[in-house]
Amino acid sequence: MQMSKVDPQLSIETRTGLPEEWKFLLENYPRDSWSSHSNLGEHTRFWLSIHRHFRMMGSHLVAQSEDYREGRVDGTQFRTQMAPRLQQFLQTLDHHHRIEDGVFFPNFMAAEKRLIKGIELLEEDHHVIDAEVHTMVRVANALLQTRDDDHDGLKRAGEDFATSSVRIVGLLDRHLNDEEEIVVPLMLDRGEIELMSN
């Protein structure tokens, strides 16, 4: 479900957190209590571990891009290492978002009507991130297709890729934090069995 219009203050590109009206469950289940809560099931643990993996992969991608941009690794080495890692990162992210949009989010909206707008915002985040993924693929392909002897071209392509890496990781970090603050308290409040059986 794509939102027709997003309040500019709630856009993933500008917001600094969630509106207070969507934090009513987070007040009862603050982040520092999640790991020890009795309702933290295997599904939620796994979902959070995927988020940690995205953060780790994103940080590594940015670090690799910076190393290349600053000349700490050469173009051949960077491109050889970057391509398979980027492909894994983007494919895993796409698969994760498809499952959330197609299965989890509809269940969550059915379970808690007060969070519908918040979950719709998370869906809209997916569209924005997906658009940035397409940009990243385009700039990565440009980098991979630049000749080794085209030093100026490699420099420009490397700058473009580094800029795209920083941007997508920043968007993803904002999204993951907000998504967790909506979804995990709901899972702890209702339990995984109830939410997954809707």
- Top CATH class: Mainly Alpha
What is the gyration radius calculated from CA atoms?
19 Å
Overall shape: it is elongated
The helix/strand class is mainly alpha
Number of strands: 0
Number of helices: 6
The CATH topology name reads Four Helix Bundle (Hemerythrin (Met), subunit A)
Which terms would index this structure?
198 residues; mainly alpha; Four Helix Bundle (Hemerythrin (Met), subunit A); 73% helix
Outline the structure in words:
This protein is mostly helical. It has one domain (39-196): Up-down Bundle (Four Helix Bundle (Hemerythrin (Met), subunit A)), CATH 1.20.120. Helix content is 73%, strand content 0%. It contains six helices and no strands. The protein has helices spanning 24-28, 42-69, 75-111, 116-145, 151-190, 192-196. Helix 2 (42-69) runs antiparallel to helix 3 (75-111), helix 2 packs antiparallel against helix 5 (151-190) and helix 4 runs antiparallel to helix 5. The relative contact order is 0.19. The model has no long low-confidence stretch (mean pLDDT 91).
Please give the structural blueprint.
Elements lengths: L23 H5 L13 H28 L5 H37 L4 H30 L5 H40 L1 H5 L2
Helix pairs in contact: 2-3, 2-5, 3-4, 4-5
